[in-house]
Specification:
About 30% of the residues lie in helices and about 50% in strands. It is built from 2 helices and 6 strands.
Length: about 100
Amino acid sequence: MKRLISVSVLLMGLGSTSAQAGSTLRCGSNLISLGDSEYQVMTKCGQPAEESMLGYREIVNRYGHVTEVRVDEWVYGPRNGMYHYLRFEGGNLVRISSSR
């Protein structure tokens, strides 16, 4: 029973680590995080290998006001065989994903 509890705690800890892994990206000695601006990412990581304008998205704030923001995707890599995809909405980083 004690061993089962230890394994469960270990698995919960691994789950939280992998969830955080997608919210940051290391560029050399710099670290970028969700919420960073395009300028901050460019300063820390340099010019991306590819930039794409994906379109626009409507955002509704808590008061019901609708704003249209630009959606861009930047690609960095390959770095050690990995491509890193950064999605910006309204000039702020909202998603980091990677693939081989």
